[in-house]
Amino acid sequence: MANEQKEVSALTKTYNLILWIIPQLEKFPKSQRYLLGDRVETNLLDVMELIIQAIYTRDKAPSLEKANLKIEKLRYLIRLTNDLKYLSIKKYEYVSKCLNEIGSEIGGWLKYQISKDEKEK
User: Fold this and answer.
1) What residue numbers bound the domain in which 25 lies?
2) What are the distances in angstroms from CA 19 to CA 32, 41, 69?
3) 113: which residues sit within 8 A by CB, 6+ positions away?
4) Distance of alpha carbon 37 from its chain centroid, rounded?
């Protein structure tokens, strides 16, 4: 039951971050809206899809590993948006906190899944 709550929580947090960040990305300069903004949005949507895939598949670890990698890419993309002054410090802190929470939940879920898979072998 606790693991199911993590699954739903990671998905909900990712969805809420997407809802919040899309209007922020629309404020980027036109030159970066379709490059950097699109990469951020695409990676976040990919994370959401990978979480959904992990929820509904038997072999969850590959999807969770990919989601974890995408979260790490997002951390650097968001850092870049902050360094380029496209996001304020306050907004950068908010996104970073969200990504850390999502990453922690995915990481915990992945560790649980790996230990569960090893016990079944």
Assistant:
1) 2-120
2) 19, 10, 21
3) 60, 61, 64
4) 15
The DSSP line for 81-117 is HHHTTSS-HHHHHHHHHHHHHHHHHHHHHHHHHHHHH
Query: What is the CATH number for 23?
Result: 1.20.1440.60
Q: Which of 71-80, 91-100, 112-121 bottoms out in mean pLDDT, i.e. has the lowest?
A: 112-121
pTM of the model: 0.91
Placement of tokens 């968001």 in the chain: 78
- Nearest CA to 9 out of 78, 109, 93 is that of 109
Q: Per-residue pLDDT tens for 3-49?
A: 556 567 999 999 999 999 999 999 999 999 889 999 999 999 999 99
- Give the number of domains in the chain: 1
**First and final C-alpha spacing in the chain:** 22
Task: Tell me the two tokens of residue 92.
Answer: 């950068």
Distance (Å, whole) CA 1 – CA 110: 16
